[in-house]
Amino acid sequence: MSSSTTESALATDQLLAFQRIAREGSFSRAAFSLDIGQPAVSSRIRALEQALGGPLFTRGRRVALTALGETFLPYVERALAVLDEGMEKGRLAGTGQRGRVTVAALGSLAGGLVGPALAELLRSHSDVEWMIRSGNHESVLQALWDGLVELGLVVWPCTEALATNLTPLVVLHEPVVAVCHPKHELAQRRAVTQEELVRRAQPLYRLRWWRNHHPEIVLLAERSGAFVDVPMETARHLMSQSIGAGFFVRTYVAEDLAAGELVELTIRDLAPLYRDSALVRRTRPLPLSPAATLFVDALRAQAKRLGLLAPARSPRRSGERRRGRS
Q: For residues 317 and 323, what is the distance between their CA atoms, to the nearest angstrom?
């Protein structure tokens, strides 16, 4: 133990001894409450009085505070209270009950995935400070790079130069599905061909779930002759008005599908589409805080419930990844 640590511990013992004597009105009763000998209590008070430059107690048949002691006591009470609070918060942080967790997530995952995971944590860890923001892939990466957040949900694999400094913690593999409003004419068919989709969508929304527009969706949009390049929130609103059709990651529209507000279309001559993403952190030697680890575990559990955890690598999945990166 270093000399500075010893001095800090000794100073705390001195303050505690002073507080107990003031409260008990006796050196012997203070020693008993601290479970130490009276000589040790007397020694701590002498050291404290020497540091302060005067006596803290009047000695005799009855121990009483001096003017210096009365002035000093409120500060000692405050210092010990702050120390106790700090130790308690430190203990809670070590078990994940306290702390601060900062996350940036793709907008398409902020609701259906992050929302339910966070809801469970808020019920059991309400004293943790949570800061969740959403955005596109580039803004999430920038927040990670700038140190504004500790964790990020990004499109994966990430091909930017800084990706070599990212560690994936949870990898997701989610379907991208074609949807429309139940009153749209496509909904009456449910299973259609690519030709029927581009001819009847009017318009077909071109949405960027990957780092760039998926090439097959780009071709479909160009064939439709009436495609609209809009944010996912805008497309979702337009489809609620029975206008157009588009491809969404299922997580983003899962509640709409379950409520019957949107319907999923099967494109008979189009291979299934997927979007891979990952919860990542910048590669560092230090482990995640307990609170951040709880978030990672909660997100992984929610992803498992939704069937989004990426399977083991296979030749087919590698091909899908290559197609998603284009």
A: 10
